[in-house]
Amino acid sequence: MNMKSQKYDVRLSVLAAGVAGVLASGLSPAAAQQQQIPQGWFKACSKQADVDICNVQNILTASNGQLVTGVSMIELKGKVNRKVFQVTVPSGRLIPPGIGLQVDNSKAQKLDYVICFPDRCVAEIALTDQLVGTFKKGTELTLTSVNFQNQQNPIKVSLAGFTGAFDGEPMKQSDLEDRQKKLQEFVSKNNQDFAKKLKEEQDKAKAAN
Description:
β1 and β2 (51-61) form a beta hairpin. With 209 residues, the protein is of the alpha+beta class. It has a nine-stranded antiparallel sheet with strand order 1-2-3-4-7-6-5-8-9. It has a single domain (3-208), classed as Immunoglobulin-like. It is globular. The chain has helices spanning 3-19, 29-35, 129-137, 162-167, 173-208, and strands spanning 42-48, 51-61, 67-78, 82-90, 99-103, 109-116, 120-126, 140-146, 152-158. It has five helices and nine strands; from the N terminus they run ααβββββββαββαα.
């Protein structure tokens, strides 16, 4: 394997780690309360070949389970050593502005997009001790992307619980699987309810005619 392809594989592995937790990450606060799914920051660790991957993340989703914003602090150790901070947002973003990262009232810094998929775009910067320290001292993140209508879309992410997740033990695999199962069940029920309401509206329309 040449150096170029190796760097490409590393980037893909980091991206995979950053977005892997989206479905296993939880729901909106109201839905979570109903489903009793843990919210906020959590750590998930895994092993891929000769690399240990730990990801401290916080994923915000809409009531239907769709991604709103995903925040990931990823550390790779072993054959590959790298630390990266990533933010994942839905597609339909303007690329040049990137994503603005602001902790409380500090000066915002820009994250450049590194890749876009059909359903999401990922931006990143290097994960430094200074950034981690800022998160530990802060109370809230503001992540601002710009949509295709050239409108800013700021999302607030609480930093409550970040330090405990970052310094603590990772979630057990069984807990992650349970969280993913509950989320899938929630999304499935929402889809069924939507289909039912749609059919009722169609039946009313037919009756009116």
